[in-house]
Amino acid sequence: MEFVLLSIPVIFGITSVCLANRAVAKGCKRKKALYTQIASFCAVFLVCFLCPMVASAAEVTEAAASSSAMGIGLIGAGIATGLSCIGGGIAVGYAAPAAIGATSEDPKNFGKSLIFVALGEGVALYGMLVSILILSKLG
What is the pTM of this model? Predict the structure, then answer.
């Protein structure tokens, strides 16, 4: 039973990638293929997130509650790191070209523009710090 539950997300992910590639090759818009990929990711996430909780709902002991809290803590640490890195990447993606353009027009703007790029990278570092704090509370 566990093998079936573990293979469902893998099969669903591979199938969605193949269908998206085929749709783009046939002339479908890339935006529609992207939305299909996001929807399939959400479905896989829900299957992976809900199935273990349903399976462990039958026995609620102290050890099960402790492992559940540890699992939720690990998910929280992963979300903190992942979302902050995505946000930092978006910030650097917008700030770095603007900094290069400002520096090419006037080389004196290098220091000011470097600060804005570093602020975007700082967001990712703060997310990593939060996840380290979460992991230290779990251990």
Answer: 0.54
**Beta-sheet strands, E only, within the chain:** none
CB 40 within 8 A of CB 16: yes
Average pLDDT, the chain: 79
> d(Cα 3, Cα 8) in Å, to the nearest integer?
9
Q: How close are the terminal C-alpha atoms of the chain, in Å?
A: 31
SS3 state at 60: coil
* Length reported for the chain: 139
Count other C-beta atoms under 10 Å from residue 58's C-beta.
Answer: 7
In this structure, the dihedral spanned by the alpha carbons of residues 20, 25, 31 and 32, taken in order and rounded to 10 degrees, is -50
pLDDT at 1: 56
For residues 37, 43, 45, 46, the Cα torsion angle rounded to the nearest 10 degrees is 160
Q: Do residues 6 and 41 touch, judged by C-beta distance below 8 A?
A: no
